[in-house]
């Protein structure tokens, strides 16, 4: 830690302990130099750091003053969870919606009709006849060299210089997240998650016995950077795990400006981030959103992704850009899954070496865009006025906010009796702070089956709202 950071942390504690109250003057720079024994430049840097965090403010020719309640306002949004228990909830939920009879509005997977590209299936068929394509040895950790080379080239195309040795092929994105988290933590460590986040992250925390600090979503920026920095300053966080692009379940993509600011905070405090970017290819515009990895100058970010949302989760192929953590991750992999299916890796090399993937992605993106817009227009028109649905231009999820008095778990249970699935809050927030949201999968054409399911959902919400209003008149 730099001296200025040490001093800033010390002063911050004094502010927190109310040694100085709001709007009280801090010792002048010169006084602080005398008191602390640090140089003027160190003291200036510390004061500027506190100012950047909004803890103090400066007045021309008067000096520095303590800001009002800045700390308290961010701190109250940061939550600590010592024991995570979500796995059995997720397990029961996934079992309950597995049958083909259930209308999959609650599914996390994109409609399989849009994936499993015909060219890839053809490649698989051709390779299946070649004995050498099954050999496992070339695919042992860190995975097929050619596949890693292609993935490295794709990073380079986005301005992220990458060597194949930075990449470890994993059994899907979830394996990439789990391996990364396991490599970076020990039981009892603190990690930081977004308050509402893909259940796999919470399950990994539960499995590894980690304590979770959460920060709330920011209504405009997606990430509350103030709360983020407060959490980092207040807890010994080992690593953060977040989604910045097409966030699951909410759907937002964080702007480049906020990503850059986030990267600066990570660098300032030397905090690692595991970036879950499995929806990175499902953007709608002309330009692919940058990953956080792009802004990483110091190899603090492990970038996890997979082919599950673009080619099919059934292939179970993902990867982590692990950089210097590659070796460590491979050790864990050797002890657990050994390696990813070599046959599939070979087929992906063949498929990705041509332009097939780009063409497939183009069609996939435009189909998802069309469908999501249709679902949004329908829901926005027909949902009770007390409900809101935001439209974010990527991916295939819509996140519906219900009135606070409605419990989305009960809605999920009632609809399941009608063989309709929706994904309730409880799956994405082990702290169960909010219960009034549901996630809808929009990757299925709106045929009569889906239309009926949406009508049932709307009807159920309207009935519950009417009931509540009646009881509270
Ligand atoms: C945000 C997020 N991360 C990771 C995964 C897991 O991806 P994979 O199927 O590649 O393991 C999912 C799957 O739903 C997801 O939504």
Looking at this structure, what is the CATH superfamily of the largest domain? Type I PLP-dependent aspartate aminotransferase-like (Major domain)
CATH topology of the largest domain: Aspartate Aminotransferase, domain 2
Q: What oligomerization state is this entry in? A: single chain
Bound molecules: pyridoxal-5'-phosphate
Q: What is the 3D form? A: globular
Task: Supply the number of helical segments.
Answer: 16
Which descriptors apply to this entry?
473 residues; alpha/beta; Arc Repressor Mutant, subunit A; Aspartate Aminotransferase, domain 1; Aspartate Aminotransferase, domain 2; eight-stranded mixed sheet; four-stranded antiparallel sheet; 16 helices; binds pyridoxal-5'-phosphate
Describe the model.
The protein has helices spanning 3-16, 29-36, 40-52, 70-75, 87-96, 118-128, 145-157, 172-184, 199-208, 225-234, 256-269, 326-335, 342-352, 356-382, 408-417, 448-471, and strands at 56-59, 63-66, 79-81, 167-170, 190-194, 211-215, 217-218, 222-223, 237-242, 272-276, 301-306, 318-321, 388-389, 397-401, 423-424, 437-441. The chain is α/β, with parallel strands linked by helices. It folds into three domains: 3-75, Winged helix-like DNA-binding domain superfamily/Winged helix DNA-binding domain (Arc Repressor Mutant, subunit A), CATH 1.10.10; 87-111 and 358-471, Aspartate Aminotransferase, domain 1; 120-356, 3-Layer(aba) Sandwich (Aspartate Aminotransferase, domain 2). Helix 8 runs parallel beside helix 9. The strands form four sheets. An eight-stranded mixed β-sheet has the order 3-6-5-9-10-11-12-4, with helices on both faces. A four-stranded antiparallel β-sheet has the order 13-14-16-15, with helices on one face. It binds pyridoxal-5'-phosphate. Pyridoxal-5'-phosphate is lined by residues 108, 172-174, 198, 200, 243, 248, 276, 278, 306, 308, 313, 318. The site of pyridoxal-5'-phosphate (PLP) has 14 residues, from helix 8. In the C-terminal section; belongs to the class-I pyridoxal-phosphate-dependent aminotransferase family. This is PLP-dependent aminotransferase family protein. Residues 1-69 form the HTH gntR-type domain. InterPro entries: Aminotransferase_I/II_large, HTH_trans_reg/aminotransferase, PyrdxlP-dep_Trfase, PyrdxlP-dep_Trfase_major, PyrdxlP-dep_Trfase_small, Tscrpt_reg_HTH_GntR, WH-like_DNA-bd_sf, WH_DNA-bd_sf.
């Amino acid at each position: 830690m730099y001296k200025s950071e040490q001093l800033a942390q010390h002063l911050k504690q004094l502010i927190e302990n109310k040694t100085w109250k709001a709007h009280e003057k801090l010792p002048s720079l010169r006084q602080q130099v005398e008191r602390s024994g640090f140089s003027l430049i160190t003291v200036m840097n510390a004061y500027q750091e506190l100012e950047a965090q909004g803890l103090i403010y400066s007045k021309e020719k008067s000096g520095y003053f303590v800001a009002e309640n800045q700390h308290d306002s961010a701190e109250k949004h940061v939550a600590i969870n010592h024991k995570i228990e979500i796995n059995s909830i997720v397990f029961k939920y996934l079992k309950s919606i597995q049958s083909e009879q259930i209308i999959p509005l609650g599914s996390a997977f994109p409609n399989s009709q849009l994936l499993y590209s015909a060219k890839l299936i053809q490649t698989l068929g051709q390779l299946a006849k070649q004995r050498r394509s099954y050999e496992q040895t070339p695919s042992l950790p860190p995975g097929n060299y050619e596949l890693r080379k292609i993935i490295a080239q794709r990073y380079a195309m986005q301005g992220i210089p990458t060597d194949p040795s930075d990449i470890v092929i994993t059994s899907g994105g979830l394996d990439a997240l789990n391996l990364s988290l396991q490599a970076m933590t020990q039981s009892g460590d603190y990690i930081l998650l977004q308050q509402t986040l893909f259940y796999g992250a919470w399950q990994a925390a539960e499995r590894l016995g980690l304590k979770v600090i959460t920060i709330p979503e920011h209504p405009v920026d997606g990430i509350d950077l103030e709360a983020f920095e407060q959490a980092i300053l207040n807890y010994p966080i080992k690593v953060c795990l977040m989604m910045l692009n097409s966030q699951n379940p909410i759907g937002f993509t964080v702007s480049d400006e906020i990503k850059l600011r986030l990267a600066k905070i990570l660098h300032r405090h030397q905090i690692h981030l595991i970036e879950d970017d499995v929806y990175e290819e499902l953007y709608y515009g002309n330009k692919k959103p940058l990953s956080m990895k792009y802004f990483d100058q110091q190899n603090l970010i492990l970038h996890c992704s997979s082919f599950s949302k673009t080619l099919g989760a059934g292939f179970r192929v993902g990867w982590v850009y692990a950089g210097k953590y590659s070796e460590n991750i491979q050790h864990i992999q050797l002890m657990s899954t050994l390696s990813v299916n070599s046959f599939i890796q070979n087929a992906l090399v063949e498929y990705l070496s041509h332009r097939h993937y780009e063409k497939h992605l183009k069609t996939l993106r435009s189909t998802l865009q069309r469908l999501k817009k249709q679902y949004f227009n329908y829901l926005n028109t027909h949902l009770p006025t007390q409900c809101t649905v935001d439209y974010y231009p990527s991916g295939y999820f819509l996140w519906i906010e219900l009135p606070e008095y409605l419990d989305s778990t009960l809605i999920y249970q009632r609809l399941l009796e009608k063989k309709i699935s929706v994904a309730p809050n409880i799956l994405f927030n082990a702290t169960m702070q909010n219960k009034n949201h549901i996630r809808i999968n929009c990757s299925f054409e709106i045929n009569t089956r889906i239309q009926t399911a949406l009508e049932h959902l709307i009807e159920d919400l309207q009935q519950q709202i009417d009931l509540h209003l009646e009881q509270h008149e």
